[in-house]
Please model this.
Amino acid sequence: MGSRMCWTLVAPLLTAGALLAASSATAADWNRFRGPNGSGVAEGTPAPLEFGPEKAVVWRTPLPPGKSSPVLAGGRVFLTAHEGDKLLTIALDRRNGKTLWTRSLLRSRVDGRHQLNDAATPTPVTDGESLYVFFADFGLVAYSVDGQELWRLPLGPFSSPRGMASSPMLSGGVLVLPLEQRDDSAVLGVDASSGTIKWKVPRPPSSGGSYSTPVAYRTAAGETQAVVSSPFEVAAYDPQTGDKLWWVGGIPHQPKSSPFVAGDLIVLGVQGDTRRNRFPSWEKMLGDYDKDASGFLMPDEVSKGMRDNFDGTDYDRDGVFRRDDYDKLVAEITPDSQLMALRPEGRGDLTRQAVLWSVTRGVPRVTTPIVYNGVIYLVRNGGIFAALDLVTGKMAKQGRLREAVDEYFASPVAANGRILAASRGGKLTWVKAGADWEVLQVNDLGEECFATPALAPDGVFVRTAAALYLFAAGAPSQGPERQ
Model:
């Protein structure tokens, strides 16, 4: 799509940030990945500027490993984890962090995944009465908020070379779950009350997979659409029927961040690859690796990186890597990464008319950007933080979080005029919101952090590799008793 710009000023965009704030300002529940409809915004959170292992801690609860983010409903916090062959769903008391219940499933298998992926990466979703959990090594399972198992739906095995990581979305009693993979790629609609599959829409196969969570988009006519960012296109589905309503094609192959809604716009970032000029010719590949001069490559002949992903690049699944496989690989992964804003109007292929703007520079690899008071904020590896204009996509300010130069996997969240960005190494940076943003405070937990924080009226919930913390303004500086 290139760097297309549309300079039409639409009145609803001027209040997009306000609309998002209003939708989450009184929300006590952070019910899915990135909170209410994936906005990442929760005004009114008593968020302390300074916090740490011994500062502003309401409670700290040790946890088994897992990279899913916490979700909140009523008086409970829900998370997933894993321990040996057990896939765990855990409920904690929001007041004190005490464990209320733990439920365990035995893995039915161990699917392949990237080393940074995890057996408990997808985040649950809740409607306040039930909790819906997806484990890539099992499938879907539903519990009441009191821990009673309601149903289970085994799924898989999956053939994504880097593993599955999309979280389910809940809309009108239907769970929408992307299962983008090498074989049998699809989007599922599952009845939340019974666990039966209502619809299954095939998707084009992809060697890269998808790690994006759907979002609900409400049209001006009041229609709710499930927007799914998939390899090669973003599309909207009727969550009740699975009917494909519209789509925008030509996007890169590996969605890792999730789409989000800003007024009448949908904003999304998709990882591509700018290495097209660094790919050698097929002839050079044979010269470097084809030791037996067979004219094709076997797994034991290629580089370690290719060998680790051989199943994903052997497109015809014949056990060898041929010229056709190589051409498809280069064509698939070389489009530039893109951050774009869409205004979908109508049905069918909207590739040419729905894109308000699209930029290819500075797109995060993993994290989902956030829009707050009409400004888009993003953070990417190296601690690079940027603010972009929502209407035009133009860069307002970009700089480095110099005390938090690190990798970033958690997505930024916002409350009370500030943005919170959590680095892999456990440095959580508060940034003053605005086109001319500035760093306010860097807090160091000293524990690895992959999960996106949750915001609520009782404080900031942060999951690290070791524990879940609740931080709040006015909490004791010396730290509470540990569970």
